[in-house]
Amino acid sequence: MNRRTLLGGLFAAASVPALSACAGGITSLDGEGGASGGGGSSKGGVTIGTANFTENQVLGHLYAAALTGAGVKATVRPNLGTREILIPALKGGDIDLLPEYQGALLHYLAPKATATEEGAMQNALTVALPAGLQVLPYGMAEDSDAFVVTRETARKYGLTSLADLKKQNGRLVVGAAPEVKKRQVGVVGLKEVYGVEFKEFKSLDSSGPLVKGALKKGDVDVANLFTTDTDIQANGWVVLTDPKNLIPGQHVVPLIADRKADATVRRALARLGNVLTTAQLTELNRQVDKDKKDPEDVATAYARRHGLLK
Amino acid sequence: MTIDWSWLGDHTDDLTTLTLSHLQAALTAVLLGLVISLPLAVVAHRIRPLRGLLLGLSNVLFTIPSIAVFVLLLPVSGLTRTTTVIGLTIYTLVVLLRNTVEGLDSVPARTKEAAKAMGTRPLRTLLTVELPLALPVIMAGVRIATVMSISLVSVATYIGDGGLGQLFTDGFQRNFPTPVIVGVVLTILLAVVADALLVALQYALTPWRRRRA
Amino acid sequence: MYELFKNLGTWLTSGAQWSGGDGIAHRLAEHLQYSLLATLIAAAIGLPLGLLIGHTGKGAFVAINLASFGRALPTVGLVVLVFLASGLSMWPVYIALVALAVPAIVTNTYAGMTAVDPDVKDAARGQGMRGHQVLRQVELPLALPLIMTGLRLALIQVVATATIAAYVSFGGLGRYVFDGLAQRDLVQVLGGAVLVAVVAVVLDVALAGLQRFLFRHRTA
User: Fold this and answer.
1) With an 8 Å Cβ cutoff, are A85 and C178 in contact?
2) Deepest of A125, B168, C37, C219, by most Cβ within 10 A of its Cβ?
3) Is residue A117 domain-shared with residue A53, that is, in the same domain?
4) Contact B96, B39 (CB under 8 A)
5) Range of the domain at A211
């Protein structure tokens, strides 16, 4: 367990030739972009971007391991930020591939989308995606957004579902990553679908130390966490149910630039998608967050165990 | 808050990569800063009205939070090393410009007149008389700019770069102090070593000051 | 670029943007609170230390190198480190800001003290002044310009760096920068940055005015 590990992808950042971003921005607009489904080549290697939370980095390294197993050179750039930052970077050519989540991605691209079933969402995504980008088949593993309260808060205000929040309008403080304030699967949708209005929105992080710390301390009443976060169970927190299906299914789905989407990449990522379960992904997250293992080590070990990497 | 020594042992390669990447960003920025500030400083030194404008402008730049500069560069240069280097360069300018102008100011008028009287051309005077005499003050600026840049690189971790700064966000997200402590210590070490090397460089570049001392 | 600045104008002048918990007025007040309190604490630590070192001449090495060390200290790292040690509290913010400000204050105070002509000090002692009298009545007034330079430098840096409070869940104008980054709302980022710069410049001008006032007072 040593050598090229969690931050291995970073050297890629260091060795990006100056001004490549500008060049990439221009080339990504050329004819090749529109042809979804073909014409891409992973020969030059694939750069995987990951968002600023543990699981996305685990997924990025799982993608990298699967691609390496298929003979494609893959580099991971860890911790680049939010979807709002990553997708323009994908279009601009700074990165080629992103581990994404079906419903959240769909609502980012098309806030008014109504599809909730996996197949329908996949179709809607294909329609909503800008030219030059495509989603590959989604995987089995799922990680949804969840709105969570402590057991005491649930009892005090009689909360079991998102619909119950409306009764406490103007009284509760919600904590989430800053981008959730503007997202459909977030404050916007909670108001539209459930009529919920919070007393205050606190900008924290994505299922990270800030939002969990604030929930524990009582600084926030409602916290936006991920369902694959083992701390929910460990602390006995209550996940509010979603009777009106505001929160869509969140299967993990690769979002890739057309220019890199060749048959080898598709096959490698599909194999991973068909193996990785939600429970396994949750366990991998736990190993990184709690056992302090490197995402790369955890992902490589998993890929070896499941024959994705020799 | 204890250090997990085995983590340290397991990550020597990563730490080397990050340290080099960190150093590369900082040094590139200082070099670029020098290349830009030298001509600007000569202009500011010669043309008085421009002097206040340039120095004032660079002072205002200093008051803008560095993270905002990195973010605002995203539409220009994206999530790349280029963004980091441009951002850092802007901050080095503040120090380098001021010190270079002050260095040029510190050259006695008599010396310049003597050079002129000997028929030396202005450009030659600048290169062979003024700049060497201004070197101590310029080098003081280079030292400050270098140490400052080394410390600032880590802010670029918010846009996915940041060299050793990656250790800070990683440790933060996982509630894991070891990478953070290691990152802070390495950053300070890097700054101290770079500063010492610059002192040695200045010593080598200004032999006339040694004899006097 | 033009679009960005046009939108910035709208952002800065809309009434809604100024009111409420996430409004500019509130964020501005928070930012001032963090910056001024941190600089005051730093002055309370740095001024006596710089005066002591300058007066006694002991620890000069520390005073000279502290500034360099202060510049080398990565603020993000320090904030995270204190966060991991103390949890969700204001400690990370204040410790990091004070650590940033103290070196500038100590080094400049010390430099101001050493710039005082030794003959003047000797003359004061020759008139029978005690050590603390020399410090208060001779050294301190003469060192004041450089001491003020240190304070102004510290304050500017603290105001720009107080942005980091938002990284560990707190407010201040940094909220706009970090939220704008997460939402890729560059107008918000630019708005936050411009406001921080304005606060820094205004406070600097105010301190410069105070400095002039103190001088006039002394020579009168």
Assistant:
1) no
2) B168
3) yes
4) no
5) 145-239
Tell me, what CATH number does A51's domain have? 3.40.190.10
Could you tell me the CATH number of the domain that includes residue C79?
1.10.3720.10
Residues of B in contact with A209 (CB under 8 A): 172-173, 175
Using the Cβ of C89 and the Cβ atoms of chain A, whether some distance falls under 8 Å is answered with no
Q: What tens digit of pLDDT does each residue of B130-163 get?
A: 999 999 899 999 999 999 999 999 999 999 999 9
CA distance C42 to chain A (A): 27
pLDDT of residue A28: 33
Is the pLDDT higher at A112 or at B73?
B73
- Give contacts of B 22-51 with C, CB under 8 A: none
Residue C37 has pLDDT above 90, yes or no: yes
Contact of A21 with A77, CB cutoff 8 Å: no
> What is the domain extent for residue C72?
28-173
Same domain, A132 and A152: no
The residue among B8, B72, B81 with the most chain A CBs within 10 A of its CB, best to mutate, is B81
Count CB-CB contacts under 10 A for residue C185. Answer: 20
Q: Tens digit of pLDDT for each residue in A79-89?
A: 999 999 999 99
Q: Where are the alpha helices (DSSP H) in chain A?
A: 10-15, 20-27, 54-69, 83-92, 102-109, 118-128, 151-157, 189-194, 209-217, 230-234, 263-275, 278-289, 295-305
- List Cα–Cα distances, C86 to B37, C79, C83, C99, in angstroms: 42, 10, 5, 16
Task: Per-residue pLDDT tens, chain B, 213 aa: give them.
Answer: 788 999 999 999 999 999 999 999 999 999 999 999 999 999 999 898 899 898 888 888 889 999 999 999 999 999 999 999 999 999 999 899 999 999 999 899 898 889 989 988 888 889 889 999 999 899 999 999 999 999 999 999 999 999 999 999 999 999 999 999 999 999 999 999 999 999 999 889 888 877 654
Instruction: Specify the number of domains making up chain C.
Output: 1
Chain C segment 134-173 residues within 8 A of A by beta carbon are: 166, 168-169
DSSP state, residue C137: I
Topology of B8-206 in CATH? MetI-like fold (1.10.3720)
Q: What is the pLDDT, as a whole number, of residue C217?
A: 54
Does B52 reach chain A within 8 Å, measured CB to CB? no
The number of C-beta contacts closer than 8 angstroms across A and B is 119
Rounded to the nearest angstrom, the minimum Cα separation between B88 and chain A is: 15
Q: Express each pLDDT in A196-211 by its tens digit.
A: 999 999 999 999 999 9
CB contact under 8 A, C179 and A82: no
For A203, the closest of C83, C178, C185 (CB atoms) is: C178
**Quick check: A208 contacting C, CB < 8 Å?**
no
Task: Give the ipTM.
Answer: 0.91
A37 found inside a domain: no
Q: What residues have CB less than 8 Å from A135, skipping those under 6 apart?
A: A100, A102, A105, A122, A125, A126, A129, A253, A254, A255, A256
Instruction: Report the mean per-residue pLDDT for chain A.
Output: 88
Residues A209 and A153 in one domain: yes
* Domain co-membership, A129 together with A257: yes
Partner-chain contact B79 A95, CB within 8 Å = yes
The token pair that represents A281 in the structure block = 């992904």
Q: Which of residues 55-94 of B touch C (CB under 8 A)?
A: 60, 62-69, 71-72, 74-75
Mean pLDDT, rounded, of chain C? 91
**CA atoms in the 13 A half-sphere facing the CB of A26:** 5
Q: What is the mean pLDDT of residues A135-146?
A: 96
Distance CA C79, CA C94 (A): 9
